[in-house]
Amino acid sequence: MLVSNSGPDAASRAAIRLLMRRLPGASAVEGSSNLELSSTSEQPQLRSAEIVEGSKLRANKVPDVTRTMASGFGAFLDGAQKVRMIGRYESAPLVLGITSAAVRVRVNRRLVTWGDQPPRLEHKLYLPLRYLPLSMEPPDAGQPEYGQWPVVDTSTANSNGEYPSPHPTMLLERAIRAVDQEREALEDELAEAWCARGEAPLFVDGGISRSGRVASSTNVIGVIKSHRTLYVEGEALKTVVGLGKGERSSVFLVSPRSRHAVMSWYLRLRDPAGHDVLWGLVRVEMAQCENPTERADEISRWVLAETSPLALPDGRWDKMSYGIRDVEEFLRAIS
Amino acid sequence: MSEALGRVVATERKPNTPHEFHFWTAIDSPVGIGTIVRVDGANPMDGQIPHIYGIIVEGFSYTDLQSPMHDVLGHDGLPTTAGYAATERAEIRLYTAAVLRQIPEEPLQPVPMGQVFLAEEADVQVALRMDSYLREGANTGIPIGVYRAGGTEAVIYLDADFLLGPEAAHLNITGVSGLATKTSAVEWLLASLFKHFPEDKGSIAAVCFNVKGPDLCYLDQPGKVEKSDEALYEKLDVEPKPFQSVEYFAPYTAKGLALNTFRNNEALLDNVTPLTWGLREVLQFAEVLLNKDDIDAKADALIDFITENVVDKEFSDPILSKKHRVQSFADLDAWFRDVLQGMERKDGESWRTHHVATIRKVRNRLSNISTRCAGLVTDAGAVSDLPFGSFEDRTVYVVDVANLEEDAQDLIFARIVSKLREHLERRDLGVKHIVVFVDELNKYAPGDGADTYVRKMLLDIAERGRYLGLVLFSAQQFRSQVHRRVVGNSGTSLFGRMDPDELSTPGYAVLSPATRTKLATLEKGQLMIRHPHFTQPIFVRFPRPAVMQGREGSERYPQASDVSLDAAILRALRPLDPTISLPWVQEITALYTQEEVIRARNATLLARPDNVKAYFAAQFRKIIPAQAAPRPMAGSIKSAPENDPYGF
Is residue B526 in a domain? Predict the structure, then answer.
């Protein structure tokens, strides 16, 4: 998933112009920058997981790794989001969110956009309507619109019926989380469409456990680069951080709250010597299966095969596959 | 309509302008340097979708790789493993195109964003503004070659009004030697010109100076035409056959026995005419042969005096021993001798204001001409010349000067071009337009060096010839070494494969690096064209001329070696009368000197009589052969009278 940070674009300018007309007293925020993801505010944590390959988490050399091995992935999916505070009304932040997602299919070793489902691209305003004297146009198809912009209310009550406080940071956090969810929804939509087609395995940037259909599909593989949550504890942690290049951990079961259970394992893509312990380390997710060892070996070979060409100049090139970088560049171009 | 092959792109760093734009294509798009494309603008202007035509002048390709080092790292320094990567890096083909034409032409704006299409044949006509002279009623198009790109094949036409005048004129062709591009291109263009030059514009002929090798010596002989060339000929609507009417002219060798040309094989002599000039023809162009030191004001005055008062006139003077009628170099030398002897007798230093030293100098220089140009200039004054006044339509007149000394070449060139000009001015050449082809232009009209008569004349043709119908087709290896006004006045320029050193000269700075690179690697049969209607140079392919190439011709028709006098006479006369045999020649000429025999031959060739034998033999009748005096009869001694008192 790509988070970009660039100066005000045409969409931002158009949105704030509209808001300033409708909201006397609203002011533009100069040099609006992209806002950080809510996930980065999560505390790093260790969490135990059920080992499904053997009784204990071990380091396994991925067999048959060669320079000439082929990858079985036929496509790559990623999403991107731009979150900009384009203005404020009193203390309430006015946020523009641009979310996008795309699948890029590999044809003759070159990546092209999947023809079956066009890339998704959405521009929405994320507004705390409760704190704005804004007269909304009649809701259409359930989502209010403001001019040409769909609006997401960031001041709705939570499951306990409590409304967020008008604290600007609180409202901003809610806007960011809403954008995050929009992007994830787009990704899931495309991943599910891919599953329905039953084509070659899809390489997804990130986890696959949000959607039940995706989490249970055998042709969708998730590769997670960030490790704010490590599914190991104690000796297992030592095993994971001690993985060498081309080694994987035993397969374990990940079943987060409110998500679907998937099988997962850690895989070291590059030699970590001279780097931090998470260098070149990814966590792979796949649907549960009966032969996790063979399947994990096979998928690990695919993921290793995707380490070439390098995803440079992206700073995450140690973990990122070139296919995902290609999707990110594509999304950067269209959004 | 074909599918779009690209999209226009513009960035702040690489913006589009009214004369240049950028676009990208798919990796396998059939475009390259020289491809003509059409941009369809996205937004109408005054209700009209803008169409922009451009020619690709530069191409770029790059991937998302930021540093070559990243690729090395990605493959652990092993190039062989690079081919196993699951995915090829994203790669771009980005092209820069120079605008050929915008429609509408006003207001002239930067090229808009839009889709890019491969130009089709009709697009090419519009892009190159050929539509203005290919339309009904203004058909002045002369096919020069075929433009090919992708699946498009379009005939490229030159505008006759801009090739042969009066709008613009002249053509210059540049290219390295050895690829036969320059000569081949001119041969092909003449064939096309003869076929397509509009009837209503009058007649046309060409005078080609063969300055080196045998390339122009077999224009009337069929050459080998490849299948691919046949298709080109068909497309260009020209028949693949040699020139139907070709006349060759060449002077004799210094000995005067054989013609000094590669085309002196007996089998080809029927349309070869000797080129010989006498005193009158040469004296008019003495300036060509005399350098500035020779022709100071005093010498010039004396030459003028001789031309005005001596040549072809009865001339008498008190100091002369007799009346002179000077008609040849031999006569002139006799006149000079008489003048100098007369001055010696009078012990005078000047005669008619001319100092004796000037007279000696001019005598020396003029008498020397017949030696320096032996074979061309005759002492006797026999003249055999191009048919000025009766030039024929669609005929090529080849003057072979390849084996001559530089002086003789200059003289021939100067005199023939001057005569062409005189006749064109008087409108009595026989044709309305004449194309003069000169190779090695950097030798005859160099950018530096002495301001020779020939260079001045070439400049004059280049600057004023188009008004007369006198058109210069010139060629050289190094355009940068030719006088700027000569090449600058060439409305049309052709470029074959170029020498990289030549391409690095300032004259080619207007071309993009990619275009220059393409020029340095052009194949045989490819040309780059600049023409007044084309705002950018265009690459075309032309067919190999359907005439015998020089090398093949010289192998099939070997040049005749030096022969005996009798054999030379036989060879010269037999094309006029095949019944002439060597014994007959030997019998007729047995009693005469070589000079007399050659004179008789020249007269016969010049007259081309019906009865060649009789005419040739008649040339000797004026010479009464020396016969042994009959022995006088011994006179009878008169007997003394019987009554003679003194008788013994």
Answer: no
CA distance B100 to B113: 17
Instruction: Tell me: do B264 and B285 sit in the same domain.
Output: no
Q: For residue B639, name the pLDDT band (cuts at 50, 70, 90).
A: low
Of the pLDDT bands very low, low, confident and very high (cuts 50, 70, 90), residue A185 is very high
B274 φ/ψ sector (left φ>0, alpha ψ -120 to 50, else beta): beta
Number of independent structural domains in chain A: 1
- Contact B549/B219 with Cβ under 8 angstroms? no
Domains contained in chain B, number:
4
Question: How close does chain A come to B46, measured CA to CA in Å?
Answer: 27
Pairwise CA distance, residues B434 & B421, whole Å: 9
Q: Are residues B362 and B454 in the same domain?
A: no
Please tell me whether residues B30 and B49 are part of one structural domain: yes
Residue A203 C-alpha, separation from nearest chain B C-alpha, in angstroms: 13
Q: Do B437 and B207 contact (CB within 8 A), yes or no?
A: yes
Residue B430 and residue B475 in one domain? yes
Q: Characterise B525 by phi-psi region: left (phi > 0), alpha (psi -120 to 50), beta (else).
A: left
Q: State residue A146's pLDDT score.
A: 67
Rounded CA separation A234/B579 (Å): 120
CB contact under 8 A, A109 and B74: no
DSSP assignment of B280-312 equals HHHHTTHHHHS-TTT--HHHHHHHHHIIIIIBT
Exposure string over A259-281, b if 16+ CB within 10 A, otherwise e? ebbbbbbbbbbbebeeeeebbbb
Q: How high is the pLDDT of residue B101?
A: 96
Query: Residues A50, A53, A56, A61: is their CA dihedral positive or negative?
Result: negative
**Chain A touched by B639 (CB under 8 Å):** no
Q: Do residues B215 and B333 share a domain? A: no
Q: Tell me what pLDDT residue A36 has.
A: 62
Query: Which of B27, B78, B87 is nearest residue A322 as measured by Cβ atoms?
Result: B87
B465: domain range?
191-224+239-270+387-494
pTM of the predicted model as reported, rounded to 2 decimal places: 0.80
Asked if A180 contacts A37 with a C-beta cutoff of 8 angstroms, the reply is: yes
Q: Looking at beta carbons, which residues of chain B come within 8 Å of A312?
A: 65-67, 70, 73-74
C-beta atoms of B27 and A305 within 8 A: no
Domain extent for A111:
2-334
Q: Which residues of A touch B70 (CB under 8 A)?
A: 310, 312-313
Query: Is the complex ipTM more than 0.90?
Result: no
In the prediction, which pLDDT does A5 show? 46
Neighbouring C-beta atoms of residue A89, cutoff 10 Å: 20
- DSSP H or E stretch at residue B434: strand B433-438
Token digits for B28? Answer: 């396998």
Summarize pLDDT for A221-256 with one digit per residue, the tens.
999 999 999 999 889 999 999 999 999 999 999 988
Beta bridge partners of B530: B493
Query: Is the Cβ–Cβ distance between B345 and B319 less than 8 Å?
Result: yes
Taking every pair of Cα atoms in chain B, the longest distance, rounded to a whole number of angstroms, is: 151
Same domain assignment for residues B119 and B246: no
Same domain for B454 and B580, yes or no, is: no
Least confident of A43-47, A191-195, B287-291: B287-291
Alpha carbon distances (Å) from A46 to A225, A233, A251, B544: 16, 6, 17, 80
DSSP string, B57-109: EEEEEEES-S-HHHHHHHTTT-GGGGGG-SSPPPEEEEEEEEEEEEES-SS--
- Partners of A51 in the beta sheet? A252
Q: Is A328 on the interface with B (CB under 8 A)?
A: no
Q: B285 and B401, same structural domain?
A: no
| Chain A interface includes B30 (CB < 8 A) | no
